[in-house]
Specification:
heterotetramer, A mainly alpha (481), B mainly alpha (459), C alpha+beta (174), D alpha+beta (260), C: 174 residues, alpha+beta, Alpha-Beta Plaits, 2 domains, 4-stranded antiparallel β-sheet, 4 strands, D: 260 residues, 4-stranded mixed β-sheet, two-stranded antiparallel sheet, 22% helix, globular
């Protein structure tokens, strides 16, 4: 029944189904003008984010004044590092996964997601002080690296192994992210090279290289983007594995939770979806990309957010049930510290905001299939991630005896559990500043690279065709191999 | 070879109903052989019932053996059905069409096989129904705190849910059979079974919704079932080697690994036995091969994590168990075989398109995977029990007896027989799904290139 | 009074003819509940210009879920309270195990009710087939008209005009 | 959520104190237990199959490296844990914790999943793999107060609950206070022990005080190098056993500790 299809999309059908343009020229010119002209909304955004960032720097300086030795006070800093790692660094996956699955709805937003890998640079900056916050291995704690001063073999393990490996991994993640961003931006940069002026033209000319869009170049681009995307995913998992092992789990004596690295990564994917949804709503409302970022994109992502929220519960319960049922003293102490003890409020907030609320709100299809539903829920999820990370990181960093070789580090007694550690003024500055900093980076790069991928938009017009089918109208989705 | 064969609905009917209306030559032979194996297995079980659990190889440290291993294995296989059909339905993957039903039916029979393993396992099977809130005369209900009560609830939910799922998806095909069936009773029976399905737009619309809705409902159950099976082991602190939080996802992903492999196996068999090579194309094997690469690599990461944390604990039972697994006879060579068959042989092969596209190679590799995954469960359960606590005087070992081996063979024969009988009575490849696929097939011509496309309804 | 039904058969290629027949019937003043298209395979919705079938399926699984949840709650809590035996120092009302079984109950109820809902909402089981032809499952497209005796003749004429290869009559008792 | 349910419900809380320093490994307790509780005769085959049933068994523990290796005798039996891992996993309540702190086994309920056996860290639970049989000459030796178990079910040490019941019943009838260390109350193994290494009693009573001073200064997590000699087996699992072991008095070890 293969009937010929006219490659001309009709106009003005139901909201959010496709771009209200008939020719590619219109799309290109529209997107380029939208990108090149600097809107005052953008400027105000950058200024606000920059101010927050300054605030954060001030807070960091205040903390630094007291030195690095007291690790308890650095808990909130570690929390914010984890927060950025879970949101900004995970967001590019929302571009990568649908691209590998060849889902067309991703095309208008894949760039918006990839741009967050630019904010990944910020996470690298945030990580540098962590190297001083984490003590070396020789304080007798269990570690991934099996350092043992008495053993002839394992005493050879360098005591700074965690720092080295984590630093390398995060550096690699950021580099891969930038390569991905650069690859996917190349055709658009070539467009800017032709169509724009001034510094942006020079910048584009430098980065777009000799891109002219031959078939070979296109094939190579798709091929490379697939590989780099998969590689980014692996690096992300690896980074989460190292960070949770070396910068979180080892700090809590007797916390043996083999699932936690994956829990951390899965929650990060959830937070990444929420981040992308938020950046979409901003681009839609203030960025002027209303025609491109439509209901279809929100729908696609809200399904994902819903599924990942369910996954949140499953991972949490898989760990909790084993600990609750096992009832070993060490496990009860860990539950007391991280969940039902001093940080109960924080845990409940995380539980409600990143699982219960999404479950009961997004189980309704009309809510999922709307603009505001996913948006509100992603705000909730981001707060949920914040509180969830808070109970982990602040609690773990306030455990006494970190770095002290004389404290027994295989079990934690109930009475050794520290009180809740409230944030001071510098911590609040740091929290605001880190968020502002990430947004700042994002906005800057959104200025340099078109935040809606022009070439993917054009490709979409090729492969997603709207046609009449007897008495009804259907889409024809082309799936090129 | 050309990828997609466009067929008329009549051709589809004739091809896919051939095994139901006709009778393949090999059929009696196969059924006879399987019945023989089942008979032997049941005879062995009768022997065990008469003499008691003593006829198995179980002993004091190792109280669970082949039966529980086999139970976990079949639960794992059963997960492929819902995995394939539900996830691929939800993602509207076109290549799911010919394989969904075979996968779902495999789910049903392997679940029954798994349950039968529990019956073989317990000491007094005639009282097994006490785990259900049934026996009021006893004046006592089950202890809901026990994972062995979570298990039946989850498995029964899964069994009922997936059989209803199969039935609903079967309605239109039953109508087709009703219209084709000859003989005195067959048309009436099929007519009753299909509830008078006619194919009005309303019925088709609800059929479509049913596919999505039931998938979305069964998927969480499928996740819960194997998590709970894993908690049979993980919540135990008596066995240090099992007490790990990662078990639930680890078992799930392992189940998907072995189950999807089993589906590929069944696909190959269907292609050969029922001459379905016009419906199950090389690109179906290609797709499932790609899926398998992802799944198996994820599984391997979980495997790695489980090991890392086992060593990270630095607790003596853990270390002793790993030492037994990897270095001691006979587990060391079982461990080697397990690693090779479940990952290091198949996955590199799947990287080659030629392997992914050939039914024969996919059949071989996936059989290897299932051998490996059976061994995986064995290597989790037996060494864990043999090295439970630091007390060396309580360490032991286990060798299965002939009775256990025969009964395990019986379960395999049972599932195969179930599939055969089902395929004799109902079409194993969903007819209406294939027809829909033919209707929704389309092409986009861009210049000289024609891109394969599929029609989607405007949301 | 008893209704009669006729069926006009169109071939696999006559999709548009069938659609025309539907339009003609609609123009001739037949209600949407009186004529219907029957196909052997799902076509994209509205291919024959038929009205989108309305259904209230989604309330079914919700009802089932609620029932299942309540049953699970009563069963688990009731069992533990009725036989308050201490095992392993676990609380008499242990929440996590109850959560697991209540979850299973919820899902089971949801699935069973969903299936019942699907069957009933698609107007099944159907006792009498009415006008039907086996060739429909071979790809033929049937347009049935179910109405009073007197309105049957014009309907038959409309169908033949639209190009129906064959007209069949049948009793329609429900 | 993490609290412990169901201890200290009755005024008694039966427990035992095992002084390893006094244990000579003579196995008298094993024989006494077998004859008291109708435990089937363990033939050679049962041991080679590792299916012997000994509610109390004397295990041999090797301490130290060659050349200075020391053999220790360790009587192992059901520890009647307050947080027994074996109890919650039984699907049919065949084992649960009664109000006197005993971990009781109800044979009629057992369906033989062997889950409890897997979950007992001390491996004090035994499964009837075969139908128990006794030679004709021993038929009359069976204890009428104790059930003869059939095949396919679990069994384990009950602290001779039949003796506890009888003596409590007698004291109630005579209206006398049930005194702790009388031979009618204490289990067969305790009565049979020639060196009195086993001591049975009420952990809410005298035995409790005695155990307390043994356990005091005891660091938890199994390392009882300081303070009294008392410790719980596999303490790090947090099963809270009602059996207290007193470690062997070892002069050389004392020295080592003095030096170290």
């Amino acid at each position: 029944m293969a009937s010929h299809v006219d490659v001309k999309s009709h106009q003005g059908h139901g909201e959010g189904q496709y771009v209200p343009f008939t020719t590619q020229e219109e799309v290109v010119s529209d997107l380029i003008t939208k990108h090149t002209k600097v809107s005052d909304k953008w400027i105000s955004g950058v200024v606000a984010a920059g101010l927050l960032l300054l605030l954060g720097v001030v807070g960091f300086a205040m903390r630094l004044a007291n030195g690095m030795d007291d690790r308890v006070v650095w808990g909130y800093y570690a929390l914010m590092f984890a927060f950025i790692l879970s949101t900004a660094s995970a967001a590019p996956m929302i571009a990568i996964a649908p691209r590998i699955a060849n889902a067309h709805w991703r095309r208008p937003i894949s760039r918006a997601a990839e741009l967050w890998s630019a904010a990944g640079l910020f996470s690298l900056l945030l990580f540098i002080p962590m190297l001083w916050i984490l003590p070396p291995l020789n304080d007798g704690r269990r570690s991934l690296w099996f350092f043992d001063p008495d053993d002839p073999v394992y005493s050879q393990v360098p005591i700074y192994t965690p720092h080295i490996w984590a630093a390398l991994a995060i550096l690699g993640l950021v580099i891969v992210g930038f390569v991905l961003l650069w690859l996917s931006a190349m055709p658009d940069l070539a467009l800017m090279r032709e169509h724009s002026t001034g510094f942006r033209q020079k910048f584009a000319a430098k980065l777009s290289g000799n891109w002219v869009g031959t078939t070979g170049q296109w094939n190579m681009l798709h091929h490379r983007m697939g590989i780099i995307g998969a590689f980014y995913f692996m690096m992300l998992i690896f980074v989460h594995f190292l960070v949770t092992m070396d910068f979180l789990i080892v700090l809590v004596p007797g916390w043996i939770d083999a699932l936690f690295p994956i829990t951390h990564a899965a929650n990060a994917l959830q937070a990444g979806v929420a981040t992308v949804i938020l950046s979409m709503i901003f681009m839609r409302q203030f960025g002027g990309y209303k025609e491109y970022i439509t209901l279809e994109q929100f729908w696609g992502l809200s399904k994902l957010l819903f599924a990942l929220s369910l996954l949140w519960f499953w991972f949490w319960f898989s760990s909790f049930n084993v600990f609750w049922y096992g009832k070993k003293p060490s496990e009860q102490a860990v539950l007391e510290l991280l969940m039902v003890g001093p940080y109960l409020i924080s845990f409940l907030a995380g539980f409600v905001l990143s699982f219960l609320a999404p479950l009961f709100v997004m189980v309704w299809n009309p809510v999922r299939k709307s603009i505001w539903g996913p948006t509100i829920m992603s705000v909730a999820v981001l707060f949920g991630v914040f509180f969830d990370k808070l109970r982990y990181y602040v609690a773990a960093y306030s455990v006494p005896g970190i770095g002290d070789a004389h404290v027994h580090k295989h079990f934690m007694d109930m009475d050794a559990i520290p009180k809740v550690h409230m944030p001071g003024l510098p911590d609040i500055f740091i929290i605001l500043g880190v968020i502002g900093g990430a947004v700042f980076f994002y906005l800057i790069f959104a200025r340099l690279i078109p935040p809606v991928s022009i070439w993917e938009q054009k490709e979409l017009m090729l492969y997603k065709v709207h046609k009449a089918y007897h008495r009804t109208e259907v889409f024809v989705l082309g799936k090129p191999r | 070879m050309q990828e997609h064969v466009q067929l008329t609905q009549k051709e589809i009917n004739d091809d896919l109903l051939a095994p139901v209306l006709g009778m393949p030559k090999w059929w009696y032979g196969a059924v006879g052989f399987l019945l023989l194996v089942i008979f032997i297995g049941l005879a062995a079980y009768g022997y065990e019932l008469y003499w008691g659990m003593g006829v198995t190889g179980l002993n004091r440290p190792v109280m669970w053996g082949f039966y529980i291993t086999n139970f976990v294995f079949w639960i794992g296989i059963s997960h492929a059905g819902i995995m394939i059909s539900a996830i691929l339905r939800l993602t509207q993957a076109e290549w799911r069409r010919p394989i969904t039903r075979a996968a779902e039916v495999m789910t049903l029979f392997s679940l029954v096989a798994a349950l039968s393993n529990i019956m073989f396992h317990v000491g007094r099977p005639w009282r097994l129904f006490w785990v259900y809130p049934y026996d009021f005369s006893r004046g006592l209900f089950m202890n809901v705190r026990s994972p062995f009560v979570w298990d039946p609830s989850a498995v029964m939910t899964y069994l009922i849910g997936s059989s209803l799922f199969v039935y609903v998806a079967l309605l239109p095909d039953l109508a087709v059979v009703r219209d084709r069936a000859t003989g005195k009773y067959a048309p009436t029976v099929y007519g009753i079974l299909c509830l008078g399905f006619r194919g009005t737009p309303r019925q088709w619309k609800l059929q479509g919704i049913a596919g999505i809705l039931l998938s979305a409902l069964v998927l969480p159950v499928f996740v819960s079932v194997h998590s709970i099976v894993s908690w049979d082991f993980a919540v135990a602190i008596g066995v240090e080697g099992w007490h790990s939080t990662i078990f639930a996802p680890y078992f799930i992903i392992g189940a998907i690994h072995s189950g999807v492999s089993a589906v590929a196996m069944i696909m190959a068999l269907v292609v050969w036995l029922y001459k379905a090579d016009r419906y199950i194309r090389p690109d179906h094997f290609d797709a499932i091969g790609r899926l398998l690469i992802v799944v198996s690599t994820t599984w391997f990461f979980f495997f790695f994590l489980e090991w890392v944390f086992a060593l990270y604990t630095l607790e003596s039972p853990e270390i002793a168990m790993r030492e037994l697994q990897v270095f001691q006879n006979p587990f060391w060579w079982l461990f080697v075989i397990f690693l090779l068959t479940s990952y290091f042989i198949p996955v590199p092969m799947w990287l080659f398109k030629s392997v992914r596209r050939s039914p024969m190679w996919m059949f071989i590799t996936t059989i290897l995977v299932n051998i490996g995954m059976w061994l995986e469960r064995f290597l989790i359960i037996i060494p864990g029990l043999a090295r439970r606590q630091p007390f060396e005087f309580d360490w032991g070992s286990y060798t299965p007896s002939l009775v256990e081996i025969l009964i395990v063979c019986e379960t395999f024969a049972f599932v195969s027989l179930g599939m055969l009988l089902f395929a004799k009575v109902f079409p194993l490849i969903p007819i209406f799904d294939m027809k829909e696929g033919m209707i929704l097939r389309d092409e986009i011509r861009i210049g000289r290139r024609t891109v394969p496309a599929s029609i989607r309804e405007t949301p | 009074m008893a209704k009669r039904s006729i069926l006009g058969l169109f071939t696999e290629q006559q999709v548009d003819d069938a659609a025309n027949a539907m339009d003609a019937l609609a123009a001739a003043g037949y209600g949407t509940n009186e004529y219907e298209v029957i196909t052997g395979t799902p076509y994209p919705e509205g291919t024959f210009g038929e009205a989108e079938p309305k259904h209230k399926l989604f309330r079914w699984p919700l009802t089932g879920a609620v029932c299942g949840f309540i049953i699970g709650l009563v069963l688990t809590a009731g069992t533990q309270l009725a036989y308050p035996m201490v095992t392993g120092g676990k609380p008499i009302l242990s929440i996590p195990p109850m959560a697991i079984i209540m979850y299973e109950g919820t899902m089971l109820g949801a699935i069973i009710f969903a299936v019942i809902g699907i069957i009933l909402e698609s107007r099944l089981p159907r006792l009498f087939m009415g006008a039907y032809d086996k060739r429909i499952t071979e790809g033929y497209i049937g347009v049935t008209v179910t109405t009073e005796e007197d309105k049957l003749e014009p309907a038959e004429k409309l169908l033949t005009d639209a190009g129906a290869g064959e007209i069949k009559r049948g009793w329609e008792n429900n | 959520m993490l609290e412990r349910q169901g201890t200290d419900m009755a005024d008694q809380k039966w427990g035992m104190v095992v002084d390893i320093d006094k244990c000579t490994g003579c196995q008298a307790c094993v024989v006494a237990c077998q004859s008291e509780n109708n435990v089937p005769i363990n033939e050679e085959g049962h041991f080679t199959q590792r299916r012997a049933i000994e509610w109390i068994r004397i295990e041999r523990v090797w301490e130290g490296e060659f050349p200075d290796v020391k053999a220790r005798f360790l009587p192992v039996f059901c520890q009647h844990c307050d947080e027994a891992p074996c109890e919650p996993v039984c699907p049919v309540y065949a084992t649960y914790h009664n109000s006197e702190g005993l971990n009781v086994q109800v044979y009629n309920r057992c369906i033989g999943t062997r889950f409890c056996a897997n979950n007992c860290p001390y491996q004090a639970r035994y499964f009837n793999f075969w139908e128990p049989t006794w030679p004709e000459s021993l038929k009359n030796q069976l204890n009428p107060d104790v059930t003869v178990r059939s095949r396919g079910i679990m069994e384990k040490c009950t602290f001779c609950i039949q003796r506890i019941r009888r003596s409590t019943r007698d004291s109630d009838r005579e209206g006398t206070e049930l005194e702790e260390d009388n031979r009618a109350l204490s289990p067969a193994c305790v009565n049979a022990c020639p060196t009195q290494a086993l001591k049975f009693g009420d952990l809410n009573g005298h035995l409790g005080e005695e155990a307390a001073e043994h356990l005091e200064g005891h660091g938890g997590h199994g390392d009882s190098h300081h303070g009294g000699r008392g410790y719980h087996m596999l303490d790090s699992l947090g099963t809270h056993p009602n059996v207290i072991y007193l470690k062997k008095v070892d002069p050389s070890a004392e020295e080592v500790e003095a030096h170290g």
